[in-house]
Design brief:
The structure is a single chain. The chain is of the alpha/beta class. It has one domain: Rossmann fold, CATH 3.40.50.150. It has helices at about 15-20, 25-40, 55-65, 85-90, 105-120, 130-135, 150-160, 175-190, 220-240; strands at about 75-80, 95-100, 125, 140-145, 160-170, 190-200, 210-215. The protein is globular and about 45 Å long. Residues about 1-5 and about 235-243 have low confidence and may be disordered.
């Protein structure tokens, strides 16, 4: 069967864990899964082979990230793609104000459609790359990411978007510890003051989601990024004053 004709019927029923995780938003999670299995496949946002395992490998794997996200904070999901982990996180955590950051138009169009359909009013969609929006972006408490890039490169994009003493939470696989070890030098240059590897969704998803936590200090992104942001802000102020 070709990629653009995968039927929604290939999507399995939500497992028992989905009822527990999504609760009263389960119907919305089902609708999102249906959109991924149908429109998402036809637009090339997700592969047709992923449809049978959408619940365990994708929706639940992302939703359990909520276990390690603080309450009532701002979140930026970098390289959100088809909305993972940002949309499942928004469904289970209405206290969060989430920005989905994605550079590709066909993906941001899909994300906007999903946000409107599911009534996710606490969620906004921004088209662009992290390094492109840095000068105008309001720093957040938490940056999330999944399957975007190796940790050192991902941190270079995500850490500068953080507020002082914020944290980046990256869903990784079995190589999380090795990635973290290999990235320590790059992380130190970005103003990272603490790192850890966490397990989320124990007894909910098998295997649990492996999350790398990267914590920053007073100057997220290091001195170079702080200076770049300040310079851009001064330019913006000057332009407004000259009008």
């Amino acid at each position: 069967m070709s990629q653009d004709t995968t039927p929604v019927s290939a999507l399995p029923e939500p497992p028992e864990a989905a009822h527990k995780v999504f609760g009263e938003r389960l119907a919305d999670a089902v609708r999102y899964a249906e959109l991924l299995a149908d429109v998402g496949v036809r637009r090339g946002l997700i592969g047709p082979r992923e449809v049978p395992r959408l619940w365990e490998r994708h929706l639940l794997n992302c939703a359990v990230l909520s276990e390690v996200v603080p309450e009532d904070v701002t979140v930026c999901d970098v390289g959100s793609g088809a909305g993972l982990p940002g949309i499942p996180l928004a469904l289970v955590r209405p206290d969060l104000r989430i920005t989905l950051l994605e550079p590709l138009l066909r993906r941001t169009n899909f994300l906007q459609e999903v946000a409107e359909l599911l009534g996710l009013e606490q969620m906004s969609i921004v088209r662009g790359r992290a390094e492109e929006v840095l000068s105008t972006f309001t720093p957040v408490h938490v940056v999330t990411a999944r399957a975007v890039a190796p940790l050192d490169r991902l941190a270079g994009w995500g850490v500068p978007l953080l507020r002082p003493y914020g944290e980046m939470l990256a869903i990784k696989g079995e190589t999380a510890e090795q990635e973290l070890k290999a990235s320590r030098g790059a992380l130190a240059k970005l103003g990272v003051v603490g790192t850890s590897v966490l397990q989320a969704g124990v007894d909910i998803v098998d295997p649990p989601s492996t999350v790398v936590r990267v914590e920053v200090g007073e100057s997220p992104g290091g001195v170079r990024f702080a200076a770049k942001r300040a310079k851009a802000a001064r330019r913006g102020t000057g332009r407004r004053q000259r009008r």
